[in-house]
Write a structure and sequence with these properties.
With about 350 residues, this protein is of the alpha/beta class. The chain has 15 helices and 10 strands. The strands form 2 sheets. Strands 1-10-9-8-7-6-5-2 form an 8-stranded parallel β-sheet. Helix 13 links the parallel strand 8 and strand 9. Helix 8 packs across helix 10, helix 9 packs across helix 10 and helix 14 packs parallel to helix 15. The structure holds coproporphyrinogen III. The site of coproporphyrinogen III has 23 residues, from strand 4. Coproporphyrinogen III binds next to strand 4.
């Protein structure tokens, strides 16, 4: 009997032999889907995340439409900073906003502790609902990906207070007061370990750590200021028994440094050549890495791009297909449909 999509996904992350490709897309639950936009109307993003019925439904929408092998839980990497005491909002066209900012040692006193099982009880509730629905789904059971932000990426939002281009306040804190920057990352890791464990207990099969902005550091600074915290988070996450993925955007120069954190899998952005990544990381599963703007074009172009990506991994166990960075609002539904048809044609 062939494995279920759920079993195939977990086996791939563990680098075990695969009978066929498996895959999902980062930010697959979101704004390119009309059914998501319709449900979002009249409520804030935070209200939507904190409603387990809503979060479970939005998590399942792309699976129903496209039949992906993995559901990624509708939530956000900025919910833990909110529970540390910052005010989180999303203003249309401006991205996330966190108030107040944490820019010097005295600001650490603004942060409180929280128990994720109490403060984020909506999250395991949503995961349990998704788990129950996936079990009976056409095409077999699917995997569930839980996640959090890496200490650096999460801390950068707390320091900048918003998305940033140059991370000037973050890098200034890191270089002028490394003890405070380290204390901030350590506080995040202390809370993120039980936050991830809670997701696995509720039914997540694997965990992804998003270091979306870590590629803005050179390898020496990454190793010195970030790696010890990332390593502790990965080790804590692996205690759950679930495989762990680290995804980093713009990080071709950091692949070997990320491997030092000992994840089960590294998520490649779309700039990385897969054969080059294989040579550099022979003993680790890889996830990636179709350029998501390919999904603005035509189904034919998508099919060709999918075949190139899947061929690049052929013969190597330990590959999970994904996009090389999150789906964008302009993504074409017909293109995503063709992507998963192309993937399934190889079964
Ligand atoms: O589908 C999924 O991948 C699951 C849910 C998910 C969201 N955010 C939902 C979301 C995941 C995994 C994330 C991760 C996330 N959030 C990251 C790392 C991944 C990456 O893209 O690099 C980052 C940096 C964030 C922070 C964040 N949250 C940003 C920059 C934004 C966009 C703000 C904007 O207005 O463009 C968000 C909001 C957000 N998170 C949305 C969704 C579906 C859009 C909010 C909306 O519906 O209006």
């Amino acid at each position: 009997m062939s494995p279920s999509p759920r079993e195939r996904f977990v086996a791939a992350l563990r680098g075990e032999a695969q009978d066929a490709p498996t895959g999902w897309m980062m930010r697959q639950a979101g704004r390119f889907l009309p059914e998501y936009r319709a449900m979002r109307e009249g409520r804030t993003f935070v209200e939507a995340v904190e409603d387990p019925e809503f979060a479970a439904e939005v998590t399942l929408q792309p699976i129903r439409r496209f039949g992906m092998d993995v559901a990624v839980i509708f939530c956000d990497i900025l919910m833990p900073p909110k529970e540390l005491g910052l005010d989180l909002s999303f203003e249309a066209g401006h991205g996330p906003k966190l108030v107040p900012t944490i820019r010097e040692k005295a600001d650490l006193a603004l942060l409180n502790d929280f128990d994720p099982r109490v403060a984020c009880a909506y999250l395991p509730a949503a995961i349990a609902k998704v788990r129950a629905t996936l079990a009976g789904m056409d095409g077999g059971d699917r995997g569930i990906m839980g996640f959090c932000g890496a200490p650096f990426t999460t801390a950068s939002y707390m320091v900048e207070g918003a998305s940033s281009r140059n991370f000037e306040h973050t890098k200034r804190l890191m270089l002028t007061d490394p003890e405070t920057f380290s204390a901030l990352q350590a506080k995040l890791v202390d809370h993120l370990i039980p936050y991830l464990a809670m997701q696995v207990e509720a039914g997540a099969d694997a965990l992804q750590i998003f270091d979306s902005w870590g590629g803005n550091l050179d390898a020496a600074n990454y190793r010195r200021y970030l790696l010890p915290h990332l390593k502790r988070l990965v080790a804590g996450a692996k205690e759950t028994g679930a495989p762990v993925v680290i995804y980093l955007n713009g990080g071709s120069h950091l692949l070997e440094v990320l491997a030092e954190a000992e994840p089960d899998c590294i998520g490649l952005d779309y700039r990385v050549d897969i054969a080059d990544a294989r040579r550099r990381l022979p003993n680790i599963a890889l996830q990636g890495n179709l350029d998501p703007t390919t999904l603005f074009t035509t189904p034919e172009i998508v099919e060709a791009g999918m075949n190139r990506t899947l061929d690049a991994f052929k013969g190597h166990p330990g590959h999970v297909f994904n996009v090389g960075s999150g789906l964008l609002p302009k993504t074409s539904i017909a293109c995503v449909e063709r992507a998963f048809e192309t993937l399934r044609a190889r079964r």
